[in-house]
Specification:
By secondary structure, the protein is an alpha/beta fold. The protein is built from nine helices and eleven strands. A six-stranded mixed sheet has the order 5-6-7-3-8-9, sandwiched between helices. A three-stranded antiparallel sheet has the order 2-1-4, with helices on one face. The longest helix is centred in the C-terminal third of the chain and has 16 residues.
């Protein structure tokens, strides 16, 4: 396994994610522009911004699906204190829940909910040979399905589940590794109102059990009360960074979305409407 760290080992006190003037280009065009951001373990954070602002690119950068422009003087990305990771080892540490992953898994014919969780141990979208799957993996997969309120879905094919049910299976897949954090990239896309509320309740439960959440969304209403920090992105740059009370204001969001908006808050939750 090829892993290099800044000091030869991963520090227990290292930040979860550190970006130092990280730039990401796609098709030769910068989509993230010199982003500097530190995210600490144990602090729940939301990344908010309009479509095309670079939110999903940021998740892919952290998850090592995309790479920042290299610099000779200092590495632009550190995850858990390390500048280089074996990608499979990293994906054990950072669980991912996203509509893109769900679509990829749905391409595997006959994949059951239990299969979808188990193959996550191999960072794969296909179940490996039976002798590669250990009793420990099966036990953890079933525990994770239960924690995601999806134990009853275990034998069912993923393709036959509703979008909300499948999203719960994705949470279980991410949790089975007992990761340091969950990366949630637009996790409620395609969910109806009831399924979205159920999903957000699951996130609140995970946050209160100590799983660090990095929630990427363009819906203010999805920022649960456990989130302590909100980063606003616009055009690939950090537009604002602070507590929800500091960032989720009418003035800031009106400027972010370039239209007059009114933000209302109640009990630690926020909603926005056109002025």
């Amino acid at each position: 396994m090829d892993i290099e760290t800044l000091d030869g080992s991963a520090s227990a006190s290292a930040a979860l994610i550190e970006l130092d003037r990280a730039t990401v280009c796609r098709g030769g065009v910068p989509v993230l522009h010199e982003i500097s951001l530190r995210i600490d373990r144990g602090r729940h954070i939301a990344i908010l911004g309009p479509n095309g602002c670079g939110k999903s690119t940021l998740v892919k950068l952290v998850h090592r699906e995309l790479y920042a422009v290299a610099r000779a003087e200092s590495p632009p990305v550190r995850v858990l204190g390390q500048t280089r990771w074996d990608v499979f080892a990293l994906r054990v540490q950072l669980g991912l829940v996203s509509p893109d992953l769900q679509r990829d898994l749905l391409r595997a014919p006959g994949l059951t909910a239990l299969d979808a969780v188990v193959c996550g141990f191999f960072a794969s979208q296909r179940v490996p040979s039976a002798d590669a799957v250990t009793p420990m993996m099966l036990e953890r997969a079933r525990e994770a399905l239960a924690a995601a309120d999806a134990a009853h879905l275990e034998p069912r094919e993923l393709a036959a589940l509703s979008t909300g049910e499948a999203r719960r299976v994705l949470i279980a897949r991410a949790l089975a590794h007992r990761p340091q954090a969950l990366l949630l990239d637009e996790p409620t896309t395609g969910l109806d109102v009831a399924a979205r509320q159920h999903f957000l309740a699951s996130l609140r439960a995970l946050a209160r059990r100590g799983t660090t959440l990095l929630l990427v969304t363009h819906h203010v209403e999805e920022i649960i009360e456990d989130v302590e920090r909100v980063v606003l992105l616009r055009a690939g740059r950090v537009f604002a960074d602070g507590t929800p009370a500091e960032t989720l204001t009418s003035a800031r969001l009106s400027a972010l979305y370039e239209m007059p908006l009114v933000v209302e808050s109640h009990g630690g939750r926020y909603r926005v409407r056109a002025s």
